[in-house]
Amino acid sequence: MNIQILPNWYKKIGILIFITFAILAGSDDFRAGWNSVEYTSPYKSPLNNHEDTTQGETKPETHHFYFGKETTHLFSILSIAGLFIYMLSKEKIEDDYINKLRADSFQLSILIFLLVSLGIYAFQGNLNMPLDYFLFLYMMLFLIIFSIKKRVY
């Protein structure tokens, strides 16, 4: 099966988009961790809204210093799109063997990802994580497996 994929020069565009927007998406969280600000998840409401603070105590700040929740989420989506562009780009020398390596890497990464997901579900059934964590994990797993297979063979 021959899948139409992007030309090789899209790898540079994809990695540039990924790095740029991953840095922008993670900058607020990095800054919050650096300044020891209490983390409030952008995906769910906090359980304690700190109404019981006494005089002189301050409420923890949210970690969105420069960008809002929606903008940070958009940056995450764009970084995943950049990684997807990188994944769909051809190698410099594209032949049947590279196609076989790509298919084997997809197959192995799906199996590993399903086993990890099943393990997470078995030990923590009510884990509430956004979908972009799983997408990023799968894409990075595929790229790591593909690069290892390409170097070994």
From TrEMBL:
Transmembrane domains' residue ranges: 9-27, 72-89, 101-123, 129-148
UniProt superkingdom: Bacteria
Keywords associated with the record: Membrane, Transmembrane, Transmembrane helix
The protein, known as: Conserved hypothetical membrane protein
Species in which this protein is naturally found: Formosa agariphila (strain DSM 15362 / KCTC 12365 / LMG 23005 / KMM 3901 / M-2Alg 35-1)
Lineage start: Bacteria, Pseudomonadati, Bacteroidota, Flavobacteriia, Flavobacteriales
